[in-house]
Amino acid sequence: MIENINILKMASAMARYAAQRHQQLSENVANADTSNYRAKDLEPFGDAYARLDRKASDSKDPFSSNAESAFAARIIDIPGVDSPNGNNVSLEDQMMRSIEAQQDHQTATLLYKKTVGILRMTLQGRV
User: Fold this and answer.
1) Gap between the terminal Cα atoms of the chain
2) 8 Å CB contact between 52 and 70
């Protein structure tokens, strides 16, 4: 029953997206001094979720943990930031993106907790 509640599917997908995005951003920071390394980020969550939602009719559960790889990484174009070695990683930009990913994860977990809390109250007859 719980796996059929769309808001929980969305919250779960958003948490996986935020974790994968944080992993990609940490890879960028780790390669901040690598010659010709181009920073990457994931596609926006709304686009990724819409694509996963379209795949819902094609597969049994596109929102499962195996669907993590469905979030596509793309190269970030940051005008005027290239270093002399061809690297375009800006630590300040990566820090801001990391904060966004952290906020997305907190939002997803809060949404999940509140929804489960509402379901519990409903099942206990308090509403």
Assistant:
1) 19
2) yes
Element (H, E) at 74: strand 73-75
Stretches where the chain sits below pLDDT 50 are 62, 65, 67-68
125: left (phi over 0), alpha (psi -120 to 50) or beta: left
Give pLDDT, residue 68.
46
List C-alpha distances in Å: 78 to 6, 33, 61, 72. 36, 16, 36, 19
User: Of 4, 23, 7, 3, nearest to 110 (Cα)?
Assistant: 7
Residue with tokens 């996963």: 52
CA nearest 48: which of 15, 4, 76, 95?
A: 15
Q: How far apart are CA 98 and CA 23, in angstroms?
A: 9
Residue 74, token pair as written in the block: 């793309």
pTM above 0.85, yes or no: no
Residue with tokens 């995005």: 21
The two tokens of residue 54 are 């379209």
